Amino acid sequence: MIQITMPLGFLGTVYREIRQALVDMGEMFGLLNQPAEITDKAEAPTLAVKGGAIRFEDVKFGYDASRPILKGVSFEVPAGRTLALVGPSGSGKSTIGRLLFRFYDVREGAVKIDGQDLRDITQHSLHQAIGVVPQDTVLFNDTVLYNIAYGRAGASREEIEAAAKAAKIHDFIISLPEGYETKVGERGLKLSGGEKQRVGIARTILKNPPILLLDEATSALDTQTERDIQDSLREMGQGRTVISIAHRLSTIADADEILVLDAGQIVERGRHDELLAKGGRYAAMWARQASDMQTGA
Ligand code: ATP
């Protein structure tokens, strides 16, 4: 990704925030280029967040007109609640994330936050309201301090350390020879996957967005580290509206609603126990994953 290696800051905060969004989303969704044609309306207002309720209203979308991807998706995540998206590869989970970020406009229907259509507000204010925690956090070749501070331009040292403490990475950082000044990234200290993710969580805690978009780990290993990360993500989700793209069903049992997607349609919806009792698609996915875990597949 060329953008990551470019020097930061020279175009100011707006550019930096857009770039952060692109880096996070790029990492999350494999987007290398920002799609063209998404522009703000003349004199568009900023998003007025009242709690961060998200609504998809009969959304139809395809990357090209000849191939529909989402075929009429409707759901609502009330402010402060958690929605989990599950379904086979290619079913449209990440596409929902991209539309929430308005990387593309819907072809029919609408996406709204607190009643405001995403097409009517500025993209900058939208991106400020959403924190993205990808599976694999991108680190810049800079200090760990810089890497966390990236969450919010102008944050104080105290705020950065408070975010690191909340993400349970502070003690690790101060154990490094140069503490917060330690260089990380490809040309610096290589952090483990879990440490990188904690830096990403600290970055997002510092940003303090009302809405979180989480892309959960695909790995089937149920290690202590992963459980700890899950706990941190859950803690960070408190009081925020969360959409979680889940690959492992064990991590979403406490979501307020689970949507099961297949080929761009919602084929089941409900809470974990309701869906298990129903004995349908979700229950079958659950049974399959449980047996995979047992056989170590
Ligand atoms: P996974 O679990 O594998 O990440 P997903 O459910 O997140 O899958 P999406 O990434 O939303 O699936 O993809 C849905 C469909 O859209 C797929 O058929 C995919 O090939 C297609 N698609 C995704 N991105 C693009 C793109 N940029 N251009 C064209 N088609 C795309």
From TrEMBL:
The chain crosses the membrane at residues 1-15. It is found in: Cell membrane. It comes from Falsigemmobacter faecalis. This is ABC transporter ATP-binding protein/permease. The chain holds residues 317 to 613 of 613 of the full protein. Residues 54-288 form the ABC transporter domain. The lineage of its organism: Bacteria, Pseudomonadati, Pseudomonadota, Alphaproteobacteria, Rhodobacterales.
